[in-house]
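User: Structure tokens for this complex, please. No commentary.
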Amino acid sequence: MTDITKLTIAETLGGLKNKQFSATDLTKAYLKSMEDNRDLNAYVLETPEVALAQAAQSDAHYAAGTARDLEGIPLGIKDLFCTKNIRTTACSHILDNFVPQYESTVTANLFNAGAICLGKLNLDEFAMGSSTENSFFGSTINPWQYERKLVPGGSSGGSSAAVAANMCAAATATDTGGSIRQPAAFCGVTGIKPTYGRCSRYGVIAFASSLDQPGPIAKDVRDCAILLKSMAGHDVKDATSVDMKVPDFAAVIGQSVRGMKIGIPAEYRPQGLNEEMVGYWDKGIEMLRQAGAEIVDIYLPHTKYALPTYYIIAPAEVSSNLARYDGVRYGLRVDGKSLDDMYINTRSAGFGKEVKRRIMIGTYVLSAGYYDAYYRKAQKIRRLIRNDFIEAFKLCDVILTPTTPTTAFPIGDKSMSENPINMWLNDVFTVSVNLAGLPAMSLPIGLSADGLPLGLQLIGRAFDEETIFKTAAVLEKEAKFERLK
Amino acid sequence: MILEGKTGKWEVICGLEIHCQIISKSKIFSGASAKFGDDANQSVSFVDAGMPGMLPTLNEECVRQAVKTGLGLRAVINKYSEFSRKNYFYADLPQGYQITQFVHPIVGEGVVTIDLDDGSTKDIRIERLHIEQDAAKSIHDMSPTKSFIDLNRCGVGLMEIVTKPDFRSPEEAGAFLKKLRSIVRYLGTCDGNMNEGSMRCDASISVRPLGEDELRPRAEIKNVNSVKFAMQAIEYEAKRQVEVYENGGEIEQETRQFDATTGTTKFMRKKEFANDYRYFPEPDLPPLVLSDEFIEEIRRNLPELPDAKKVRFMETMGLTKYDASIICENKEVAEFFEQAAAGHDGKKVANWLMGDFFAMLNRKNLTIENSPVSAENLGKLVELVENNVISGKTAKDVFEIMAESGENPEKIVEEKGLKQVTDTGAIEAIVDKVIASSPDNVAAYRNGKVALRGWFVGQVMKESQGKANPQVVNELLNRKL
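Assistant:
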């Protein structure tokens, strides 16, 4: 038998149902893979006891014929999701010993569907970053061309690396400005950021509340569809979650895209864009045309403002959301002579450089005298960006773009560490989607000349993930991308 | 109030901000109990404690209470309102921000009519009412080196009510606080207990020479937590400001603290050292949109408010404006009165209520809810006097018995044989006896010493053990003397 950790969720569920292997066998295989690949630093906490206990329950469910949708599927959980009685840190020193007494809604949904928790995955501190280099636990290494020590992307770099290296069947992730899609692209795996409000944010440690959205990173399009169905749903504990029926996303896979209109935004083809990327984008367009879709030019004229807008709104929310990490009730405390001293000492020691940078930017843009010039203006542009998409979706059903401007870059890349703007440019194709609250997927389309994965992004209308899945499945079939073995 | 200074007359300008804790089962953004008086840190949810990943959800009951209060303040209800975050660091603020309403409050402009001691009324304009969460409580006196935090209060719903600068004297501010307390208690939206902190007040005060139009810089006085303190603080602060101006100084906008032990205000901070709260829209809560049906349903179920009740008591129950104001200030008193007066003379019931009845409650240190004398029995007592069954004097004795035993007055009168004698024959016999036994006084009376009249009445009443109907006694004495 081939290595069962290389199977997709769809294949794994088949194997479990047909008793080709047990959930316990499967879990042990993944735990072994985690051990073998520890040098990737994808997991910041392994939970073998929890996993094996859950696996035993799953086996009992299979034996009793009461298997649930994800029965026995071993998952890695981004360490931004609070997991009851399991240390949750957001990969920040300020929370490095925090054990929540509650479970996030998304992980609760997954575990209630029979999924298994293998451990907690690395990320950029509080999900701020595009490389996982901002993790208190150190960088994750991209499993592609391990010897080159490339970043896996971020912030969900632990998730994308673990999925790519078969250290879990799939992983939870979150996306605030591209944190699912960019790492998925860098690691040659598939990830979808659902529509804002599709998945509950309850128990997901907040980065920027109006932009954050949990979603899956998985081995292929179908696995994303299967996972999203279990993750999504209305939650009374999150006032921004939307009360809508969750469709069976996987049901659209295999449907034809004939007659569908694919929007190609002119603004996503700036001068100097990586030629290989442009080549794969054109290839993707051609695949869809061949499949019977109509290609239409669209315009998203405010795209050039998206990145600066994002880097005002997200830090503004950060500066407020992270105020609770003050050393008073939980997490790190560094004492001081007065309450203010204790705050300063704790937060100076507890937060990393990028988090501090964003807290300072956010505090500044909300300050008296600057609010109108920055935050209020950014909110207005955000509305214009959203309107751009509304107009565009009058002309097309789904939008196809590159996910990132480049392939994975080396850990410690000087141009990024010396100038944070270069790091932020990783998000140039992804942030608009968060500002507009839309769903978008990244799927691998091919390898660069030096053998690294490149991804394409599909953007859909709000709450129309189905069109994305349908289109993505066609591209996936044509691209014949080979995952790491 | 006009202050007489060395340089001339000064006018006091004052506005109030009142925080009212909303009566609701649970907190405004979490499911934890909002009950007062639990053991420390017992009514705390993960949301209240500001745990990572926790999100606020809006409690509809608190929204309903705010709308109800807004209607009670005859204010505009805003169908669209928004929540904002007010950011600052303090140990009793677990999230590092307070969820409040800033640009778009749930309630807009309204008006409250206050009753002044001289019998006049004045309309005080309400600027706005918004809803927000309360902070936790810091306890600094349990240890010399540590502060303790009780999170029970953290997240309890508050209504912040802001008035226009319409007060011109401490008395007006005091009358407003009493009226507001009365309104929220009638509505059941806040218990109005300033000493327990469920209603808290800040006052903004400035002065200007009488006749000047411009408003001068104001001082904001924090935590004037009783009607008396509010009045004291305004008076002290206004005088202080006049003195500063008259000595050639200037008042700058600043925050001051009222010291209840000395009745003075002391400097806290200048405006430029105030926190920059960095308000921005709360991304975890969508805007609050109210339907017409929601508002109308609350409007339909509004209880009668003190002003309306006062007018009704004056028009249909014969109360004076003064009596009606006093009786209507407290909902329980008004309800007690209405029950007691049913079918009886309202004015007489009011006299009893405000006289012996209140004196008895005060003496026994009881609230009206715990009164041993029921409304029904008080009504019956008035009825007994009305129908000449007992005299007013006997009624006072009966009332004392009622206050001890809670008994029905009819039963007391019956059992103790206190029924008034109205039988003319029996009283005549006593009158005759008194006249016959004191010929000297009779002679003196007839010679013009009319003051002796009272002595004769007294003798007759004494002989009858107080049961003789005074009217009959008087008639007989008229005839026989």
